Amino acid sequence: MGQSRDIDRRIASHKLDKIFTSYRYILCDEDRLLHYEKRLIRLFRPELNGTPGGARDGAGRPKKEPTFTIRVPKALLPQINELIREYKNKSEIVRTGYI
């Protein structure tokens, strides 16, 4: 189950490595593709799609150190970004042994 802007190409590529006897599609506006895909995967739970959403082992960027998310006033964003830049530069200097 998945979204496609070119159904014929998707079916042709699936015929190379999957066995199926039929297919169905829903015509919709392009901005609704993800919406319908998510709903149908949750409804039918096809085994080739895995579980929708959630963390997956190995997904995302490797973390250098633990982080967490906080909400801050938008007006403070430039100062916070500068603080993070300074912290990263200082950490680089410490790692290379200059301090």
What does this structure look like?
- With 99 residues, the chain is mainly alpha-helical.
- The chain has a domain at 7-49.
- Helix content is 43%, strand content 0%.
- It contains three helices and no strands.
- The relative contact order is 0.09.
Structural class: mainly alpha
Distance between the termini: 55 Å
> What is the radius of gyration?
23 Å
How many beta-strand elements? 0
Overall mean pLDDT stands at: 81
Q: Give the SSE order as H and E letters.
A: HHH
- Biggest sheet overview: none
Please, how many helices? 3
Any idea what the shape is?
elongated
Which runs of at least 5 residues are low in confidence (pLDDT < 50)? none
Strand proportion: under 5%
Helical fraction = 40-55%
Which descriptors would you attach to this protein?
single chain; 3 helices
Short description:
By secondary structure, the chain is an all-alpha fold.
Secondary-structure topology with pairs:
Layout: H1 7-17, H2 33-44, H3 77-96
